[in-house]
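tool_call predict_complex ligand=zinc ion
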Amino acid sequence: MGRHSVFKKQCTADSLSLDLKRWNQEGLTKSGTLRSGVWQSEFGNRERVYTVRYVLDLQDETASFLRLQYASGKESFDYRVPMVTTLPHFGGVRWWFCCPLRLNGRMCNRRIRVLYLSGRYFGCRHCHNLTYQSTQDWDPRVSRIMKNPEAMRGLLSENAKIGDVLLAMKVLKKVRKLTERRKS
Ligand SMILES: [Zn+2]
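tool_result ok
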């Protein structure tokens, strides 16, 4: 029972998250833990029901992990999310996931407390945002112009065509997104 509830409570409308803070509170992450089981989740539209097999192995603090196995569409996944500890001032041990996603061939490895399933993999919010943005509005012209502000002036000249103006708007949108991300 307990196993299922951990997962179900954490579903939101369109994503699924695993929150270590909650696991810590529920005492699921004691060092030395080895547990395995199945989580079942329904979220978003009803077609997306995930059954996730997991192994949580915290026996060796230098080689701990959460292993996740699930299927999405015709693909099946099986990978480990490394886990590490830090020692908070008030004593005890705090566990973290290390984001297992790769962007441009490099493992993210960011230390995070919440893993999100978005698309096909669990990972940190940062990686998912980047992936989302790059598939949603990736336009090679935008990054070219951002590297060369003079080109922007050309887009907004007196005899600019409508396509140029639209492109300039895309660039501005991108700039705004980047500034917002820096602030948050
Ligand atoms: Zn990441």
